[in-house]
């Protein structure tokens, strides 16, 4: 009879270890019951929600002003390149890629006279419409015309 008790104890111990080992494999946040809802047959065949991107141009509301494209003049190789026509009072960005300083000086007195060091400088175009021929005070062969419309 003693042999049966030992065998029963071993089987009971093995069963207890197996139960503990298996219960340790579950998700600690669940009670062991499956709480995931299966989709209904109708849900299985539904198309996913569509996503679209609006590519139409945006419009502004009343009283909103859209910013104009930046006006740029490039000085490179002792020549003016870029913007020739601007709006009255536009901000103009001048980039000097030469190794020497230049000017953008209007032939019309007091319209604009800007010293341009190597790098980037900005100035404001005249507010009065018209054609404004300009030159570089340091390099007489550099000439251009800024038209304000």
Automatic annotation (TrEMBL):
Q: Where are the transmembrane segments?
A: none
- Say which domain of life the source belongs to: Bacteria
Which regions are flagged for Low complexity bias?
Answer: 47-65
The UniProt record lists the EfeO-type cupredoxin-like domain at 90-148
Q: Does the record's keyword annotation contain Signal? A: yes
The keyword RNA-binding belongs to this UniProt entry's keyword annotation: no
Q: Which PANTHER family match?
A: BLL1555 PROTEIN
Q: What is this protein called?
A: Copper-binding protein
> Whose protein is this, by species?
Arthrobacter glacialis
């Amino acid at each position: 009879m003693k042999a049966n008790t030992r065998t029963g104890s071993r089987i009971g111990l093995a069963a207890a270890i197996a139960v503990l080992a298996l219960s340790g494999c579950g998700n600690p946040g669940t009670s062991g019951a499956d709480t995931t809802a299966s989709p209904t047959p109708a849900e299985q065949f539904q198309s996913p929600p569509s996503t679209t991107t609006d590519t139409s141009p945006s419009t502004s509301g009343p009283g909103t002003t859209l910013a104009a494209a930046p006006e740029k003049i490039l000085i490179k190789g002792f020549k003016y390149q870029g913007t020739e026509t601007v709006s009255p009072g536009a901000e103009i960005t001048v980039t000097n890629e030469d190794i020497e300083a230049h000017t953008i000086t209007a032939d019309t007195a007091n319209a604009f006279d800007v010293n341009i060091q190597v790098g980037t400088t900005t100035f404001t175009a005249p507010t009065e419409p018209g054609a404004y021929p300009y030159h570089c005070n340091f390099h007489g062969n550099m000439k251009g015309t800024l038209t304000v419309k």
